[in-house]
Amino acid sequence: MKIIGYIAAGILILFGVLFIYASFGPQFNSSWLITGLISVGIGFVIIWFATRQKPAALTEGNVTLKIDLPANVDLDSLKCRNCGGSLTTDNIKMVAGAPVVTCPYCGTTYQLTEDPKW
Question: Which pLDDT belongs to residue 91?
Fold first, then answer.
């Protein structure tokens, strides 16, 4: 919708400028000047409304992030490297595109790494 608004505003401003320019020709025509000023004004109002419109993605309240863990991680047996405490999916967050685990027991933070499958 924004793109259509910008195109319509551009056309209105272009023709408005042409009307204003033509009104100062050899025979001054005040009706062309008024038409040009109104056209330019409407064009800028359309641009103003188009910039105030929020994108659809920002109006929604919930964002779901699906984490694709490396290799075959069995979350039933995922344990902290430092203290051996049990970890859940709530302890895994995405940081800079990598899965990072924060242990709720000892506070250790480390990145999940993929072990070779062979």
Answer: 84
How many Cβ atoms are within 10 Å of 39's Cβ, its own excluded?
Answer: 19
Q: Give a three-class secondary structure readout of 59-89.
A: HCCCCCCCCCCCCCCCHHHCECCCCCCECCH
The answer to whether residues 35 and 79 belong to one domain is: no
Rounded to 5 degrees, φ, ψ at 43 are -60, -45
From 23, 42, 59, give the residue that closes a domain: 59
Domain count, the chain: 2
38 pLDDT higher than 80: yes
The backbone torsions φ and ψ at residue 110, rounded to the nearest 5 degrees and listed phi first, read -150, 160
Residue 56 has pLDDT above 80, yes or no: no
Residue 59 scores a pLDDT above 70: no
